Amino acid sequence: MITDIDIALVDWSRAQFALTAIYHWFFVPLTLGLSFMIAIMETIYVRTGNEEWKRITKFWMKLFGVNFAIGVATGIILEFEFGTNWSNYSWFVGDIFGAPLAIEGILAFFLESTFIAVMFFGWKKVSKKFHLLSSWLVAFGSNLSALWILVANSWMQYPVGMELNPDTVRSEMIGFWDVLLSPVAVNKFLHTISSSYVVAALFIIGVSSWYLLKKRELLLASRSIVLASVFGLLSALFTAITGDGSAYMVAQKQPAKLAAMEGLYQGKSGAGLIIFGVPKADAHKNREDNFHFKFEVPKVLSLLGYRSVDAFVPGIKDLTDGNKEQQIMSASEKMEKGRLALTSLRSFKEFKKQNNQAKADSALSIFRANAQYMGYGYLNNPDSIIPNVPLTFYSFHIMVGLGALFILLFMTTLYLSLKNKLCNKKLLLKLLILSLPLGYVASESGWIVAEVGRQPWAIQDLMPVSVATTHIDATAVMTTFILFAVLFTVLLIAEIKIMLTQIKIGPEGGKNV
Amino acid sequence: MLKKVSGIFLQIFNFYYEGFCSMTVGKKLWAIIIIKLFIMFVVLKMFFFPDFLKTRFDNDAQRSDYVFERLTSPTNK
Questions:
Q1: ipTM of this predicted complex?
Q2: How many whole angstroms separate alpha carbon A114 and alpha carbon A112?
Q3: B33: nearest CB among A72, A170, A343
Q4: Burial class (CB in 10 A: 0-12, 13-18, 19+), A292
Q5: Nearest 5°: phi and psi at B67?
């Protein structure tokens, strides 16, 4: 079936979505993390009455405002794309996505946008405590916005709490709490927001390090670094814990993604975790675990993925060809079941039109029995279930490697700051400035693992991306791709330029945002 | 009562008005926001991103039939 699909259209639609999502994510982590750190700074100010903390709060609030203003509404573009480029998908998920996105729009967005005005305009107009409350509500509001989006994304990775209506081909929510509290959603939310806090902490440390190098704003910079180091260290450690939870869920629900993350072609019991390595170019072709070199910790992948050091971790070959010993169904068998699901769904509709209820019921029961493999029915090759292994492998290892580096950096900056020795470490200060973009690299890499690793699925096992697209001209999607590339690049340049100008001016330049 | 309500609205209006007037870098940011929203909602949404199913079909039954056809026999050529 899939041979009839316009691959250029699918590729351009995917490229456009990836482009807009990546650009959108340049703005989000800073908003999520900086809002909380600003609220903490203001809390210290309100509790101590120390005017320097007010100055510190207002300075970071100004940079928060720049990021918020330029980033706001960039995510709406993704919703435009759902309606135009991904209409089959949008129809299919309608009810599941509708509820979380409506809650996001009504509750979180209004909470965020109402109190952000008080945060910026209300310094001399509302009481200290009400202003502080507004800052906290902005922080909670922005994080609450992220919750609903991440719940929707998690549902695509692990579709629970739904039932497909065979008459309308729409997913209907049968368990709101199953969708909201699915283990994938909980882990994804906690992992994403905590890693965003790390990005924001690196931002504060990077900017403050620049001030220390320039021998400017020493009190502001050193206080900010201590606070960001504590916040960043706790967040980074929590990110590691939630990362473990996420990897465990990937092992249970998306084994092909886990195999790609580790470049594992041949499944094995007691599989080791590759800390770093370079797979050979022919590894994919030969389906062998061939590396130029690798540093592997024995049995850890089995332990992390299945909570047992001797557990079997399926490789890509096991998932495509099947493994009877380990009771793993081959992709071909799943494709058969998927085709049966699709033909019985079609028969159901035809019998219903003919008013043949008995045959319609029979077709429906066959569909229900095979519905979990529905997406496989669109594939024409077992290899289609394999994501891009090198991209997933390297993105995963970059994310984890940088995460470990950040923990070390936060510990070092905290120790040296408390000992009053950071100002003299010029090389370290330069490294801390460099770590600012590395936070974004780690964050974007995480999303690449999550999204590239789950290919070919738009909705895990139910709908491949090739079927999710709208039947439109690929040239139209290519045109809008270019438009977005230009628009978002201009916004990003504006963000960086205004941000750099404000950092150079410092806290004294302009009392208000 | 009416006087009290209008007083609250006046206070809210003044709060925003004075806030906007005292902005420095914020004025530039608002210009960026307005231009961005104009490009997104007027140019992109209206001319480049019509909702495919909403604009092509009159009701949900037609939309459902179309998607059903696409999903059970996808020939997107």
A1: 0.80
A2: 6
A3: A72
A4: exposed
A5: -65, -40
